[in-house]
Amino acid sequence: MSTELLGLGCETHQARKIAQDIAKSGKPVEVVSIQDHGSTLDAIAQGAKIAAKMVQDASALHREPLRLSELIVGTECGGSDACSGISANPAVGVVSDLIADHGGTAILAETTELIGAEHLLAERAADDKVKKRVYEVIQAMESRAFAMGVDIRTGNPSPGNIRGGLTTLEEKSLGAAAKAGSRTLQQLVDYAEIPSKKGLVWMDTPGHDIEQLTGMVAGGAQIVLFTSGRGTPTGSPIAPVIKIATNTPIFEQMSDNMDLNAGTIIDGTETIESVGNRIFDEVIRVASGKLTKAEILKQHDFGIWRIGPTF
Predict the structure, then answer these.
(1) For 232-256, what is each residue's pLDDT tens digit?
(2) Are residues 180 and 229 located together in one domain of the fold?
(3) Which DSSP string corresponds to the chain?
(4) Among 77-91, 100-114, 141-155, 195-209, where is mean pLDDT lowest?
(5) What is the pLDDT of residues 257-294, one digit of tens each?
(6) Which residue range(s) make up the domain with 31?
(7) Could you tell me if 32 and 45 are in contact, meaning their C-beta atoms sit under 8 angstroms apart?
(8) Cα distance between residue 280 and residue 106, in whole Å
(9) Residues 159, 211: one domain?
(10) How confident is the model at residue 309 (pLDDT cuts 50, 70, 90)?
(11) 151 and 52 share a domain?
(12) pTM check: above 0.85
């Protein structure tokens, strides 16, 4: 995929320096500098020329078959409700297991929403190093919250989660952890870090939907499974996001945004396994070119987890 970077020209993080790092990967990259090109309008014109050439080059590319082992699938839940932990999230857990069984990678994220369930994931750690890291990232996340004067264990769930029927952070976390399925936790990586191991991987991200989504995509996720019981249109400008409703009413109410309905588990018309297999089939279809609702609506949300204040 070609990349075009835009910069002012005198900022601390220079677009040209970033372009040099991107070029090392072998990907085509171009830089447009407002100051170098004379003005905003001139930079826009130059950027449009470059983009047109990139579109032309992209049109000559052909899809190539790849093994499922090449897939990296991110998992996320936002706007959770009382159904999340018993319908969509366990169904996504089935997908995580299937991805791992096929030699691919499933990313579990949202460290803040795993507080209270960390011991269950630690028990599935591949080794003592991963197990120790589980507790380290949970403690670090809580320490950040305390530094801001927030006790995250008592300050969560959010008002929307509470209206959706969740009562405690542990209840929310147990539901979120269900997306991890049942396979061994192979690795715990930092935010936006590319996993070096296959199977189930935990990425240390915040709970903010867009920031964690960006982190998983930066870490190599080509597709993200996003469950929601309250309804959220969040998408990504880089990777397709498959939106999965946890209950039938929200699926029907937000049919423009939701791709799949896991509320059939609550309705009693499908099992967790059958919905999981249905989601897995959708992953393959989307990987093969099917557009998601978020892509069609151009829901291009982007945010980066801040590591410090701005001075």
Answers:
(1) 899 999 999 999 999 999 999 999 9
(2) yes
(3) --EEEEE-SSSSS-HHHHHHHHHTTT--EEEEETTTTSSHHHHHHHHHHHHHHHHHHHHT-------GGG-EEEEEE-S--TTTTTTHHHHHHHHHHHHHHTT-EEEE--GGGGTTTHHHHHTTBSSHHHHHHHHHHHHHHHHHHHHTT--TTTS-S-HHHHHTT---HHHHHHHHHGGGTTS-EEEEE-TTPPPSSSEEEEE---S-HHHHHHHHHHTT-SEEEEEESS------SSS-EEEEESSHHHHHHTTTT-SEE-HHHHHTSS-HHHHHHHHHHHHHHHHTTPPPHHHHTT---------S---
(4) 141-155
(5) 999 999 999 999 999 999 999 999 999 999 999 999 99
(6) 3-59
(7) no
(8) 12
(9) yes
(10) low
(11) no
(12) yes
Residues 277-289, buried b or exposed e (16+ Cβ, 10 A)? bbbbebbeebbee
* Total structural domains within the chain: 2
Q: How far is CA 288 from CA 34, 59, 241, 273, 278, in A?
A: 37, 16, 14, 23, 15
CB 229 within 8 A of CB 243: no
